Amino acid sequence: MWLLITCTLVTTLYATTITIANVSLPQIQGALSASPDQVAWVVTSNLIATAVTIPLAGWLSARFGRRRCMIWGVAGFGAATLMCGFSTSLGDLVFWRVVQSAFGSPLTPIAMSVVIDEFTGERRTRAIAIFTMGVSLVPTIAPMIGGYVSEEISWRWVFFILIPIAVIALAGMLMFIKPDPPREGRPKLDWVGFLSLSMAIACVQLMLDRGERAEWFDSFEIILEGAGAFLFGWIFLVHILTKDRPFLDPRLLLDRNFALGIGISAIFGMLFVTPMVLMPAMLQQLRDIPEFTAGTLIATRGIGTVISQVLMIAFASRWDPRLLFLIGFGTHTYAGTPDGEL
Prior knowledge:
- There is one protein chain.
- Helices cover 77% and strands 0% of the residues.
- By secondary structure, the protein is mainly alpha-helical.
- The protein has one domain (2-189, 247-340): MFS general substrate transporter like domains (Growth Hormone, Chain: A).
């Protein structure tokens, strides 16, 4: 149980940073004398670094061991978070947000792999449900906490309050995560595949994030980013289809369950994470809603998260997964329609 709590805490630590700083952007903008377009890089840089470094999780854990990666990841994340709070300029804050994400984003897949390996049979279903509840709930209520801290103390404490949690997570890993067994071979990184994928993802993220501000393809910047996404995406695709051991093996998609899982996870991510990232900024900028109120509106989603995860813990091993998917996506569709009407 302590191992499960530790892995959940480690993943929650990083997931919280995606949402907790969003409600503080107006205060950061004023404190650092930045324009709305400039302060948006606080979020954009974090998302780009996340998208680039998450694919490295498999290679890092195989090369250095999962326990070592988690320890260094949390330690680096904590140090970068501390420096985010001490930043005196927007450039410093953006830089440390990139470092924060680079250390923190691989923690999610690595921690989940530890949970899957340690819990077998029916225990695995319940363990993953508990793990998911912790990972989903805390980022949901994080905007409310961030809004309150920003209004009552300072935007810097949005980062400082994460430091004690990082220390607890680090102590838990040292005590409860088993050392990895010795490995004979150490895999080499496919640099062509990694760099081409990273550049393609970064270009796509920049294009989508800045497209509205730059009037899309009327801007040379957006044209350049779109061309870069196509070029590096093509290099990546050709490379993985012709190399014997590519960075990401496309043959994994031949497994139907794996391919379906990837598709469902992508859809769920868009439905669940997108509102938590966009709604605080939209509520503050378009409706002039205070930080704490905007965070509270986002946090109410946590009630539904708790209910659904409790149901998963109780009935996941008894009910047909297809029925659970139908209920989940059905209620999400109903809730997303205006006034609950299709």
